[in-house]
Input
Amino acid sequence: MRSFRALLAKDLLEIVRTWRIWVVPGILIFSAVSGPPTAAYTAELLASLGGDVFAGMLPDPTWVDSYAQWTKNLSQLVVFALIIALGGAISGEKRVGTSIMVLTKPVSRAGFVLAKFVSTAILLVAATLVGMLITWGLTLIWFPDAPFGPLVAATAAWLLFALLLVAVVLLGSAAVDSGAGAAGIGLGFFFLLMLSGIWGPMLRWTPAGMAGAPAALGADLEVEVLWPAVTTAILTAVLVWAAVKVFERREL
Amino acid sequence: MNVVETRDLTKQYGTVRALDGVSLTVPEGSVFGFLGPNGAGKTTMLRILLGLAPPTAGSASIFNRDTSTERDAIHARVGFLPDVPGFYPWMTGAEFMRFAGSLFAIPEPQLSQRTDALLDMAGLAGNRNPVGGYSRGMKQRLGIAQALINAPDLLILDEPTSALDPLGRADVLQMIASLRGRTTVLFSSHLLGDVERVCDQVAVLDRGRLVVQGTVDELRRSHGGSTTVRIAVTDGIGALVAAVEAEPWCVRHTPVPHDGQATDVVVNDLDAARQALPGLLARLGLGLRRFDELEVSLEDVFVGLVGVGR
Output
């Protein structure tokens, strides 16, 4: 446990001292800052470009549009950045030899993998919460009646889904030596999950239901997310466990 | 007591047998040199000892603990330097030392004291630059320092001097020698001179097989097999070499650097050489300047054991 704390402290310090602090948080903050004004001015912009063509066709923007910008960015841009940034989390350490330096000390491989998951989760949750608060604050400027609840629900649902992707990519990074390969596994899983959502039961009972949930929750629509949330949490735990087991079996 | 013991240790990678039934013992308190040409299986052996790779067959133990199943207990008492040490480039040397110490749960103020002392020993005290900017030699010295952070009972060093300049090598070898009696040192190398300088026990590995194990003196005595004599003449070394080549006691000969009228001759029968040489010199009309028996070097032993068939 003590070595886990040391590894976690190292991983958090690494996030703060390297490019990791800029990539995913940077994209999250950019999404948060750009979303509300984009929602507020898209209709005006199109009207100015199209003249009378769009007159009367575009409804007045509301806070729903602002939150939709946020959830859309989370589900696309941030997901891709997260998967690509995390691909080398374990395989990269194996490649440059730091994992051997660490794992020839009294440190369990489980602790090594768990520290990666927890540090990434801390970064992700903290940056996403900051982004959510920025989105809410800026949305209030243009749409003072914007409720906080739908934004919180949408963000929480996405975070749960994102942690599942973190677990998938960590498993890939533990299993293959290439960071790009691990990212490919993560992207493949993401697209497979999106595709499987076409089939109703998958949407109702499995993590596939979490992929589209943030957009619906952000629009304050009635969505049944209990089972998708439960299965997402269970699958995340199973995948982290699998990453530990795979890494324990690998030669360094 | 033996600190390290392997029995019929075998490691197979596909069709390649990296280790082939290696049975080895490393006595407590020894400075043990693990010799072998590149690709002999030295690093594979060390990786198995450290639990980084499982053996295909056979067993390995450190402190009587199985290396496959009791990794943590072994690692708590071992210090290790890989052949190419990997560091987090954003950390300073001191930060890495403290991080390594925290993995051993070394309490304060012991951790700070050891960090300062070891960085001082490595010539890195006061260096606040990130490790990413270190030279290879600096990284190697930091690697040795971090391997000592837990005051290990066994220090395993994989090619610790290969990346260093002559002065750096001398420093590291002196440091290894200074550990004699305080901790057991197992270090792999293909640099025979380094092993000969500091090791009291040696094992030679070749193509995955343990060729020989013993003290350096034992190896010189029992596996030298031949003696090298240095012959220097006043003039006409070419004629002498031609005559010596024809003698049945001559195994091979090599010129002596910086002396154009001298040659080192490896002989398989010293008495026969002693008896024949005066006659040869008289027949050729050459004056003898020097006739010395040279000490059998570890290199002679190594070439004799490993060089055959290459």
User: Anything to note?
Assistant: The mean pLDDT of chain B is 88. Chain B has two domains: 2-222, 225-306. The interface with chain A takes residues 47, 50, 52-54, 72-73, 75-76, 78, 80, 82, 84-88, 90, 99-100, 102-105, 143, 146, 150 of chain B (CB under 8 Å).
